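Lab intake sheet, docking and co-folding queue.

SAMPLE TYPE: protein with bound small molecule
LIGAND NAME: NAP
LIGAND FORMAT: SMILES
REQUESTED OUTPUT: full 3D complex as structure tokens
PRIORITY: normal
SUBMITTED BY: R.K., bench team

The fields below were copied directly from the construct record.
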Amino acid sequence: MAKIPDKNISVEDFTEETFQLESLRDGEALCKTRFISLDPYLAEMMQSWQGPEPEWREGIIVGRMVGEIIESRDPRLEPGDWVNGDSHWQSLESGPAKRFRKLQIEPGVPMSAYLGVLGASGLTAWIGVNRIIDVKEGETFTVSSAAGTVGAIAGQLAKMRGAKVVGVAGGQDKCREVVSILGFDACVDHLAPDFEAQLAAAVDGCIDAHYENVGTKILDPVLGLMRDKGRIGLCGLIAHYLNDDAIELKNFRKLLTSGLTLQGFRIYDHLDAAKQAQVELMAGIRAGKITVRETITEGLPNAPQAYVNMLGSGGIGKHVVHLTD
Ligand SMILES: NC(=O)c1ccc[n+]([C@@H]2O[C@H](COP(=O)([O-])OP(=O)(O)OC[C@H]3O[C@@H](n4cnc5c(N)ncnc54)[C@H](OP(=O)(O)O)[C@@H]3O)[C@@H](O)[C@H]2O)c1
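RESULT FIELD (auto-filled):
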């Protein structure tokens, strides 16, 4: 990054440099990056230049990618292997081979799916629906950012479990796609002036289970509609990542008066579920019960604009950048 962003992340905060990679040493591999993943969790690190990897302190982004090994000095990897892992936003990436996880590619599945439905986003959706909320047949299930990667998959998984599924998304076009393409029962536009009334009507006044991706703007009205002993899975707070404002809930007391459960969860605490989740997600795709939507941007130089768009309301489904040859 060129500088620490002011309030909002903008294209001017990024810069692109060209440099020579060092030759590989024993135990290292060279990977050609094919897709990088544009994820909301990076925003806080971009904003603070603090993250789990030391490179963040120099403003160097470390995100998720899928790529192809083109050279290896480690017996675990060979040229032609497809891998995923955490890497810099670079066209070529070299480093210890253990940083790259070899992928078992399913026939007919696009490479980008290993960043979305068959990657961390799919696993996050699966954990929330199955382990945290445990959605039941016949329940009314709501999910915010329903047109986003996690929300879209969560809604379709809840549908597979027999729930009535109502999404919340920004704009009528997105809402239409959520119903017509993703198969939700309804989708409510949070930008509409009468959003709360529309939500109440779509759920017939009562929600059994909710999956939160956004923040209080959606969670507050949802709380007001939760039935006794309802369950909420708190997956993300994208609307609150980039400011330190107090997070206020007018309906907070509903947690007590209706005996609700609100449980936050992190993918890192549930990695043991990865195998089962991937098998079930793959089965859902093959059975036509999970539809995958992607917003693909071409070329690394366009990654900053694509990232800013993703944080805003641009595009639908998983946001990735395709690095051309
Ligand atoms: N718990 C975990 O371990 C874990 C793991 C992965 C992801 N997550 C979280 O899961 C959530 C979804 O992730 P994702 O990758 O699928 O991203 P995403 O939902 O595609 O995020 C982008 C979308 O968020 C919505 N949004 C952004 N700002 C908003 C605002 N102020 N008000 C309302 N909506 C807003 C917009 O949708 P609309 O146009 O429809 O409003 C935008 O298109 C994120 O909060 C992410 O941090 C958590």
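REVIEWER NOTE: Residues 39-41, 120-121, 124, 145, 147-151, 169-170, 174, 190, 213-214, 217, 235-239, 265-267, 310, 313 surround NAP (CB under 6 Å).
SIGN-OFF: pending second check by T.M.
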